[in-house]
Amino acid sequence: MISKIELKELRFYAYHGVLPQETVVGNQFIVNTTITAPLGNAIEEDELEDTINYASVYQIIEQEMRIPSKLLEHVAGRILRSLKEAFPQITALEISVSKLNPPLGGDLYSASVILQETYPQ
Q1: HEC readout, the chain
Q2: Which end of the chain, N or C, is less surrounded by CB atoms within 10 Å?
Q3: Looking at 8, 70, 84, 99, which residue is catalytic?
Q4: What digits encode the pLDDT tens for the residues 98-109?
Q5: Is 8 one of the catalytic residues?
């Protein structure tokens, strides 16, 4: 069985960007994550310690979003590393970080970076 946990559309106001105004004014960001991990014990036993605590995942992402970075790639990479460190049972991760209405001089909803990583067990 493959088991996954998804957290969708976590919204943050943060100060990521290359332009000086982005680090002062900030912007809206959306983070999505899909975590693959063996959750068979949680399915059978109904105990929190047998799964990955969603609240802890949120707190890790929130903490990393508070650290200003120039690049979305850097933010997503920090989130990826922090989640894997906190939950070594993770076998695969996908993280997307989207900047809403980025200052590109055009009309677009968002610019996103998506990182995927698989960990051998």
Answers
A1: CCCEEEEEEEEEEECCCCCHHHHHHCEEEEEEEEEECCCHHHHHHCCHHHCCCHHHHHHHHHHHHCCCCCCHHHHHHHHHHHHHHHCCCCCEEEEEEEEECCCCCCCCCEEEEEEEEECCC
A2: N
A3: 99
A4: 999 888 888 899
A5: no
